[in-house]
Amino acid sequence: MNWYLFSGYAVFWGLVFLYVLYIHRKQSKLNRDLQVLADQLED
Amino acid sequence: MQQSATKYPELATAAKWLRAAWWLEIPLLLAFLVALWGAFVYAPTERVMGEVQRIFYFHVGSAAVAFFAFFIVFIAGILYLVRRNVVWDQLAATSVEVGVVFTTIVLTTGPIWAKPVWNTWFPWGDPRVMTTLVLWLIYMAYLILRSSLPEGDKKYKFCAVFGIIGFIDVPIVWMSIRWWRTIHPVVITSEGANLEPRMSQALLMAIAACMLSLAVLTLLRGAMRLNQLVVDRMAQDVIDSKRSVA
Predict the structure, then answer these.
(1) Which value does ipTM take for this structure?
(2) Burial per residue of B27-38, b for 16 or more beta-carbon CB atoms within 10 angstroms, e otherwise
(3) What is the distance between the alpha carbons of residues B118 and B190, in angstroms, rounded to a whole number?
(4) Which of A40, B199, B227, B231 can bridge B195 by disulfide, Cβ–Cβ 3.0-4.6 Å?
(5) Identity of the residue in A2, A13, A38 whose CB atom sits nearest the CB atom of B32
């Protein structure tokens, strides 16, 4: 097994999963903003 | 929030995309493990190039996904011009982002493979390499132009046309190794893949994993873009309503 190549693949997929986690966190923040704005509009 | 959902239909689309991405995340994790097993354990070592050839699965998988992402840009561009629905524009912009990431991977894994095999990091003048570089530049230009234009239908129309015309390079990249002399081998022919069966299967596993990552990233990023668009519009509406009260 070529460990350099294997770690290259693993790092890439690790980055993909980190990005997915980042988007989920950002999405939660956006949802909070949406809720606040929707409440302001309905008042 | 109920009122907002009817006033801003993009919210429902974003929620659907998020749900779809959520369902695809576990399959993506499994596909990634299977692709690693396929490339490093299941596929045999190539006789001439040795271990470094295993980069092929990732290199070609990323290229296939980049082409597909730009095809989505092409279709979404046409649909935006026909229907004038901002969802199609956001889908196109997201696909460009993901497509550019995968094209960057193609352009970085290529030299890593080329150095030990062709004794050069970057074969300048090779039609496949040059057309791929042009493809990357076209969609980088799309992203730069997009970020510099003010929001509105004019920007979305311009980006749709740019995305449609930019797609012309994708079939040129695909055909470049058939039309011109190049050091890239023709692996996929009309009779199938010129590969040992286990290598073909490992390639399919890698393409499936890359396709799933394209789907998850596009859906998540697209949903985020749509929600951001609604947040901006809502914020403007709040300001307008406060002004009208005052």
Answers:
(1) 0.75
(2) ebbebbebbbeb
(3) 27
(4) B199
(5) A13
CB pair distance less than 8 Å for A12 and B58: yes
Q: Is B235 exposed, middle or buried (0-12, 13-18, 19+ CB in 10 A)?
A: middle
Is the Cβ of A31 closer than 8 Å to some Cβ of chain B? Answer: yes
Q: Do B40 and A30 make contact, defined as CB atoms within 8 angstroms?
A: no
Kindly determine whether residue B220 and residue A23, on different chains, have CB atoms separated by under 8 Å: yes
Give the range of the structural domain holding residue A40, as residue numbers without chain letter.
10-43
Query: Residue A4: inside a domain, yes or no?
Result: no
A22 touches chain B (CB under 8 A): no
Q: Which residues of B touch A41 (CB under 8 A)?
A: 3-4, 234, 237-238, 241
Alpha-carbon distance A25 to nearest alpha carbon in chain B (angstroms): 11
Q: Would you state the torsion angle of the CA atoms of residues B236, B238, B244, B246, taken in this order, to the nearest 10 degrees?
A: -120
Residue B190's domain spans which residues? 9-238
Give the per-residue pLDDT at B2.
61
Q: Which one of A9, A24, A25 makes the best mutation probe of the B interface by having the most chain B beta carbons within 10 Å?
A: A9
Residue-wise pLDDT tens for chain B (246 aa)? 566 667 788 888 998 999 999 899 899 989 989 998 998 889 888 888 887 888 888 899 999 999 999 999 999 999 999 999 999 999 999 999 999 999 999 998 888 888 888 888 888 888 999 999 999 999 999 999 999 999 889 999 999 999 999 999 999 999 998 888 888 877 777 777 778 889 999 999 999 999 999 999 999 999 999 999 998 888 888 888 888 776
Q: For the whole model, what pTM was predicted? A: 0.89
CA–CA separation, B131 vs B128, rounded Å? 5
For chain B, how many structural domains are there in total? 1
Residue B164 inside a domain? The answer is yes
Do the domain assignments include residue B152? yes
Domain presence at residue B133: yes
Q: How many CB pairs under 8 A join A and B?
A: 78
